[in-house]
Design a protein that fits this description.
It comes from Saccharopolyspora montiporae. Keywords: Membrane, Transmembrane, Transmembrane helix. This is Tripartite tricarboxylate transporter permease. InterPro entries: DUF112_TM. The protein has one domain. It is 73% helix and 1% strand. Helix 3 crosses helix 4. By secondary structure, it is mainly alpha-helical. Strands 1-2 form a two-stranded antiparallel sheet.
């Protein structure tokens, strides 16, 4: 029966992951009241299957339609969608599925053997460490992912502005609501994501309709991965897994930060090799972030089970389900509820294999969606995006905001401003603000607390080293250019 619950969970999770705007958190929330009569072990195996399946499925629409099913698949859309437009949708889907499988297996093995050590790592993170981590992600995304640091920082500012709209929870002050009561609750990340990526892309395509055939189709290409694709993917899989593993164990770490960091690392490495396809469909830009994304899922169970601290919306709902069953997660859970914990971890191995078997053979079939003519395809994206955003809160205001943000996405594309920093600012802005305030409250306004931790100092040191390297590289390039100009003049 537990194997059956695992299968049901991964199928439901994959289906929900494919549908933009829903997400695994909503699926688990809807399942909680249905599963009260189940044995706790079977219920949590199904919840974990939904959680895993959602991460796998979120990449499908990100690659095919440039509309991520989950916020953790945002980065996958950058290169995956470009691969799809080049007729390599099946290869993008395959590298996402295989990378997800390998990183999931590695993460579950790590949790099984080193859960106590990961709990210790999670305990060491306080407000100063979280703030340093957010600053690190901000600068890494703006400078590395975007290429142009000035435009990247401008995009980051837009994302941070979107993040602070609404009522400040601590002071009660209204921020950037412009007198509109509908904006007092803030702007949902689903609205921002779907507006920037889906509606923004549709408007961009429509604005350039005269330059491309209106009814052209995107070829789905040859199925499966070639030897060259595997050669280019296996290192990003390993690096992405290594980047994602610690983030799942950090409370409030989430899966978005490691995906952006993995993407930035792969882009920088490709530039050093001199063979970068980033921006036009680099398979490394799909392999690394998808591995980082799924590596966080298993390790996110460590703070949930060992500390009772959820690191995502889905984990928070699972924590509520534990309490409904009269189970209190914490350090004693591994001994008091050993049967449940180890059955849950074992189900993650089984679920990963099920997801590989379910998803990999269907990559070419999913890719056939791209044979739909562009005008029908983009019309469908608009309809499903609108329905998905409206269904989340039944709010017409969210739909209007989605189209306004979509127009902003059109302007960003038109003037070559990067999209990634906007998203990372909107996602991590609230975390950075709340942790900065917590740190200031603890220290009674003493700013030195932000630098009073080895972890925080290490992150700031990496930022400083990266800035120094960037400045030195720019100065060297300028000096070399001036020398060459002098020689040419002579």
């Amino acid at each position: 029966m537990n194997l059956l619950w695992c299968l049901i969970g991964v199928v439901l999770g994959t289906a929900v992951g494919v549908l933009p705007g829903l997400g695994s958190a909503m699926a688990v929330a809807m399942l909680v009241p249905v599963t009260f009569k189940l044995d706790p072990t079977g219920a949590f195996i199904m919840f974990a299957g939904v959680y895993f399946g959602g991460q796998f499925g979120g990449a499908t629409t990100a690659i095919l339609l440039n509309t991520p099913g989950q916020s953790s698949s945002l980065v996958t859309a950058f290169e995956g969608y470009q691969m799809a437009r080049r007729g390599r949708a099946a290869q993008a889907l395959a590298t996402a599925v295989i990378g997800s499988f390998l990183s999931s297996i590695a993460a579950v093995a790590l949790v099984s053997f080193f859960a106590p050590s990961l709990v210790d790592l999670a305990v060491n993170f306080g407000p100063a460490e979280y703030f340093a981590l957010a600053v690190f992600a901000f600068l890494a995304t703006s400078a590395v992912v975007s290429g142009d640091a000035l435009r990247g920082l401008a995009s980051l500012g837009i994302g941070l502005a979107l993040a602070v709209v609404g009522i400040d929870e601590q002071s009660g002050a209204t921020r950037l609501a412009f007198g509109s009561p509908q904006l007092l609750d803030g702007i949902s990340i689903v609205v921002i994501t779907v507006g920037l990526l889906a509606i923004g892309e549709v408007l961009h395509v429509a604005s350039t309709a005269g330059k491309r055939p209106a009814t052209g189709t995107i070829e789905s290409g040859r199925p499966w991965m070639s030897r060259d694709d595997l050669r280019r993917s296996w290192r990003p899989w390993i690096r992405g897994t290594a980047v994602g593993l610690p983030f799942g164990a950090i409370p409030a770490g989430g899966s978005e930060i490691p995906t952006f960091l993995s993407y930035g690392a792969e882009k920088r490495l490709a530039a050093r090799r001199g063979s970068s396809e980033f921006g036009s469909g680099a398979i490394e830009g799909v392999a690394g972030p998808e591995a980082a994304n799924n590596a966080t899922v298993a390790t996110s169970l460590v703070p949930l089970l060992g500390l009772g601290l959820p690191t995502s919306a889905t984990a928070a709902i699972m924590l509520g389900a534990f309490q409904q069953y009269g189970i209190q997660p914490g350090p004693l859970l591994f001994t008091e509820e050993a049967d449940l914990v180890w059955a849950l971890l074992a189900s993650l191995f089984v679920g990963s294999v099920m997801l590989l078997v379910l998803n990999l053979p269907f990559a070419p079939i999913w890719a056939k969606l791209l044979k739909i003519p562009n005008n029908y395809l983009y019309a469908g994206i608009v309809v499903f995006a609108t329905l998905g955003v409206y269904a989340a809160k039944s709010s017409l205001t969210d739909v209007i905001l989605m189209y306004c943000i979509g127009f902003l996405g059109l302007l960003l594309r038109r003037f070559d401003f990067p999209i990634a920093p906007v998203l990372i600012g909107a996602i991590l802005g609230p975390l950075a603000e709340s942790e900065l305030r917590r740190a200031m409250a603890i220290s009674q306004g003493e700013i030195g607390i932000l630098f009073d931790s080895p972890i925080a100092l290490g992150l700031y040191g990496i930022i400083l080293a990266a800035l120094v390297i960037k400045v030195v590289g720019t100065l060297r390039a300028r000096t070399t250019r001036q020398r060459e100009d002098r020689k040419a003049g002579v």
